[in-house]
Amino acid sequence: MASNFDFSSYISSTNLLPHQRTGDSRxxxxxxxxxxxxxxxxxxxxxxxxxxxxxxxxxxxxxxxPGKAQTYESVILKHAPPHLASDPNTSMSVARQVTEARALxxxxxxxxxxxxxxxxxGDLGEIHALKEVLHRYPIxxxxxxxxxxxEKNVLWLEDLGGLRSVADALAASSSDQAGNNVEGGMxxxxxxxxxxxxxxxxxxxxxxxxxxxxxxxxxxxxxxxxFEYLVNSTRDALDGTPGIEDKEKDELVRRVESSxxxxxxxxxxxxAEKIALGVTHGESIDADDEENPCLGVVDFWPGSVLVNSxxxxxxxxxxxxxxxxxxxxxxxxxxxxxxxxxFKPSTSTGGQERLGKFMSTLFQAYSRHSPLQARSKxxxxxxxxxxxxxxxxxxxxxxDLGAEGSREVTAAGIRSLRAAGPxxxxxxxxxxxxxxxxxGGNWLKEVLSSLxxxxxxx
Length: 458
Fold this sequence. Notes:
Elements (H helix, E strand, L loop, with lengths): L6 H7 L20 E6 L6 E13 L11 E10 L3 E2 L2 E5 L3 H14 L3 E3 L7 E4 L3 H7 L4 E2 L3 E5 L4 E5 L5 E2 H6 L10 H23 L4 H15 L2 H13 L7 H31 L17 E3 L8 E3 L6 E3 L6 E3 L1 H17 L5 H21 L1 H5 L1 H21 L4 H18 L18 H12 L9
Parallel strand pairs: 8-14
Antiparallel strand pairs: 1-2, 2-3, 3-10, 4-5, 6-7, 9-10, 11-13, 12-15, 13-14
Helix pairs in contact: 2-6, 3-5, 5-10, 7-8, 7-12, 9-10, 9-12, 9-13, 10-14, 12-13
């Protein structure tokens, strides 16, 4: 996906750098040269890495507080156009970049500023609940905000280094895996990631009600049409699919629609209850309340989880959809994209096994921290709907599946939506295996059993 934003000219013209630009768009007067490489994989924004020949000192001039200069050899720049980067015909508010900046401030413990450029105003200062979770898991890293240029809609971020998508890393052939203890590193990273996710969700439920309301107000500026889009894209994906009649198709689409609508109604009800109870800044509600929505990535997929070749570093990126969510939907979505990677013709048998083992380890760690949540029928139904929805929509997103892979992904998505049943009391897990080949069925059984699903023995 080519970027039409000139990152080199932008860097040279910005007043963030300590020197004035010259005629050379890649050179700062009196300073080092820099090279810009546009990064692939993003669908919402254009992203690039700027690497400086000599380290430069930058101060976070976004903050209203006195900043200390930090030295950087490279930085990540994210430009938010007024549309999806992957689809210029789909408009999208640049407020998504404000959301990402606030999210990263919250997670890294920086002062959270809802300033005049945001839809809501005020400064909430530093809140450390999520930062404390992050510090307990040294493998997990989240980039810090260096600067947010609200005029040009460019976010300057700390560069976490040369990492790649966890799905791509898992699917790579064994000969591409570096190090002597790669398998052990994968397992440890998966365990830490699963534990981190569980504790992150739990901690987010204890945040001040005022903060949650402000984040929701901010994200609603640009996500209001997201649910309608997901419902319509699911309907389009199921149209003409062999083996599914119109009546059943309408029922499966209704399940997707009701899951999204019901989720929003629960959030609205919880906010109304907090207001009625006088819950204000500095107060929170019970983190163990299963009906209490959490904060999450929302668009949680393997492209947001990056790893290094030694499997001792995991970067969590792309927080522009950060806001009210629920654990089941996030985990179901993440598994769906791992599941799709399994179906790619380029993924070897060994890669398929690594994908499954990684998810099993991650889910086991998550379940140890949230055992009741993972085993509830409501959780499992929401998980299955999110998983199925992302699978059937993934065929359009992943162009390297081939004809057979596309059919298998669509079929797996339909099975997941069928298994969700008409209600939480009517789950039909047998539908997950009906029509599935033995190998694929066993792969999914092992993964889901690690999350607490009661599945037949393999």
